[in-house]
Amino acid sequence: MVESVIEIEVVYAAVDRQVLLSVTVPVGTTVRAAIAKSGMGAEFPELDLGECPVGIFGKVVADAENQAVQAGDRIEIYRPLLADPKEVRRLRAAKAAEAKARKQ
């Protein structure tokens, strides 16, 4: 029996370069399995592909271990945040308030 396959893309953007790989996987392949099959680990050996947050077309995938990919999906591997955006905004607001208080 011939196994049905689908085409997907796996993409990762590092600070200095980005890579998009086309991958053929069997129907029913999970997001994590598709990432492993893509060869992205060889392109970016510093990545822990089992732990990186991932998404499909900009929507975060909560259960990448069990969610199956669909034909044409673009799996995106996200970099970890260097700073918490809420904390950065809080610090910026505190700094602005301090500068305003000094002017008065």
Automatic annotation (TrEMBL):
Pfam families: Ub-RnfH. PANTHER family: UPF0125 PROTEIN RATB (PTHR37483). The lineage of its organism: Bacteria, Pseudomonadati, Pseudomonadota, Gammaproteobacteria, Pseudomonadales. InterPro entries: Mopterin_synth/thiamin_S_b, RnfH, RnfH_sf. Belongs to the UPF0125 (RnfH) family. This is UPF0125 protein EIY72_20870.
